[in-house]
Amino acid sequence: MKNLSNENVIHITKGGIQYLQFRKLLEYNKIITHAYSLGLNLNFRTAKMDKEKLLKNELNEVIQSYKNICNSIGEDYTNVVKTNQEHTDNIQTINKKINKRFLDINLESYKNTDGLITNRPNVLLSTTNADCILMMFFDPVTKTIANIHSGWRGTLKRISVKTVEKMKKEFKCNPKDIICCICPSIRKCHFEVDSDVKEMFEIEFQDIERFNKIVVKQKIQKKWNIDTVLINKIILEQTGLKLENIIDSGICSVCNSDLIHSYRVEKEGYGLATAIITLTGREDEKVNSK
């Protein structure tokens, strides 16, 4: 069986459910629980599903997928709070769940939202992707977590930096304490764009010294490959995160589309993976990962 474990992530299989966990975040597994789903048998795509439809069929693929991944990490799937994700730079602070005994999913309250922050235990923040970047943030000092979706549009809008700024403003977080984990996504090897998108990146990130390594012109076609992961690493470091606290899974969703949903591979019938993170509310104790 293919194993995606590397120096930063562990590939876990439990009861037929596969997921990744970041070694750095596992150092705090008394405080937080997290996972990034693997396997095409899990699908978190809820497009145009309304709450009534979901309530009437709890064996719906999406609900069952949330049950499966949450059961695997010992969490209650009804604690899920899910963004609606529309490629914005809007980030919401979650103080409590809206639905008491059901997932907060496809709700009007989370319309036009691509990031969530909370310091409340047992609120399970969820984002989804099929090539876009998902980033999980954790401040072990203030016990604050965030989960954001940053496609190429979100990267242009610097949603990752705006997340850190919101954590500073609302939760008194120090960027030097914040850990950011970057989930599997499309990488430079497969993220190719036309001149219009390339020019947007040139304008927005012209101040980055290593820009010639981030945007590379193809030799044959009039297309460019862009390293959006590296861009996020650079701008997060610029906003005060320590380089050693920016943890990249280093995994391309297109290269590993047998285990990770990829829009560019699956096309219109694409599925979605999820990144989930929650404060457990258990004893505040740092432990070493194994």
What is the top-level CATH class? Alpha Beta
| CA radius of gyration | 18 Å
Question: What is the H-and-E element order?
Answer: EEHEHHEEEEEEHHEEHHEEHEHE
Largest sheet: 6 strands, mixed
CATH architecture: 4-Layer Sandwich
Give average pLDDT, whole number. 92
What is the overall silhouette?
A: globular
Low-confidence spans: 284-290
Find the structural class using helix and strand composition.
alpha+beta
Oligomer: single chain
Topology:
Elements: E1 9-14, E2 17-22, H1 23-26, E3 32-38, H2 51-56, H3 61-72, E4 80-82, E5 91-93, E6 115-118, E7 124-129, E8 133-139, E9 144-150, H4 152-156, H5 159-171, E10 179-182, E11 192-193, H6 195-204, H7 211-214, E12 215-217, E13 224-226, H8 228-238, E14 246-248, H9 263-266, E15 273-279
Parallel strand pairs: 4-7, 5-6, 10-14
Antiparallel strand pairs: 1-2, 2-3, 3-15, 6-9, 7-15, 8-9, 8-10, 11-13, 12-13
